[in-house]
Design brief:
By secondary structure, the protein is of the alpha+beta class. Helix content is about 20%, strand content about 35%. The chain has one domain: 4-Layer Sandwich (Glutamine Phosphoribosylpyrophosphate, subunit 1, domain 1).
């Protein structure tokens, strides 16, 4: 299955996303070698870099690794293809504009495509590729679109409730771990994924960290976050990136909203 990672921070941080650990998942070790992508926000917009090739072989990824970027919200995905050809259009994260800002989505799982298409209309959003993940993203945006009609950020409670309800429907179609960001908040939904012994929860983990402000104080495998002042950071990942940190496994079907480096409100 695919690997997900996201970061929400209280203050803009210099993010050194070496993806060393992710590269091992992406081809140096393990089966995850069918594409990778990173999105990081700059205000309402997001820079998106992705390739339909192994992360471990990517010169583009090496370029990003050597040049830290600054953001409060980052989302990354490494693909193990289950549906769709190995093309750029099928490589995650996916991004679309809604309400005057970019929305970004990445999914880990394998949904029943026929049932997904029968159960969820797309509205004005259309996939560029042919994956279940992108179709699910377009269907989610169609559900969210009425909340964004006034051109202002809708209340977080309304967005969280809608995302959690949508996630509940996806779980009936197959493994449905996903990360979704709208530039204001990050939404994390945990379901189940492949573990030794079979498919089971947890499918996603979260970690909240606070650092006093010394540069380079927050370091995990494949990630270094540097901040000039006090910083709060929330991380979400398919598997814990460190052994010593208090990563919390999301319960099956749990949906969280993270904003400014904190878990803002739980859902289900």
């Amino acid at each position: 299955m695919c690997e997900l990672f996201a970061m929400s921070a209280a203050q803009p941080a210099d993010v050194h996303l070496s993806l060393e650990e992710f590269s091992r998942h992406g081809g140096l070790a393990g089966p995850h070698k069918d594409g990778w992508g990173i999105a990081w926000y700059e205000g309402a917009d997001a820079r998106l870099v992705k390739e339909p090739t192994a992360a471990s072989d990517s010169a583009c990824l090496e370029f990003i690794q050597d040049r830290p970027f600054r953001s409060t919200l980052v989302l990354s995905h490494i693909r193990k293809a289950t549906q769709g050809a190995l093309t750029l259009a099928n490589t995650q994260p996916f991004a679309r504009e809604l309400g005057g800002r970019m929305h970004v989505f990445a999914h880990n799982g394998d949904l029943d495509g026929a049932r997904l298409r029968a159960a969820h209309a797309l509205g004005t959003f259309r996939p560029l590729g042919d994956t279940d993940s992108e179709y699910a993203f377009c269907a989610l945006l169609a559900r969210l679109a009425p909340l964004w009609r006034e051109g202002v950020v809708p209340p977080l409670a309304e967005r969280l409730a809608l995302v959690a309800d949508f996630a509940a429907g996806l779980r009936a179609l197959g493994p449905a771990n996903f990360l979704y960001a709208d530039g204001d908040a990050l939404f994390a939904h945990g379901h189940k994924r492949t573990h030794p012994g079979g498919m089971r929860p947890p499918g996603l983990h979260v970690l909240c960290r606070t650092c006093a402000g010394e540069r380079g104080a927050l370091v995990t495998q494949g990630l270094r976050i540097a901040s000039a002042g006090p910083q709060e950071v929330a991380l979400a990942a398919s598997v814990p990136l460190t052994a010593a940190e208090p990563w919390r496994a999301l319960a099956e079907g749990e949906t969280l909203a993270l904003r400014d480096g904190r878990i803002v409100s739980p859902g289900g």
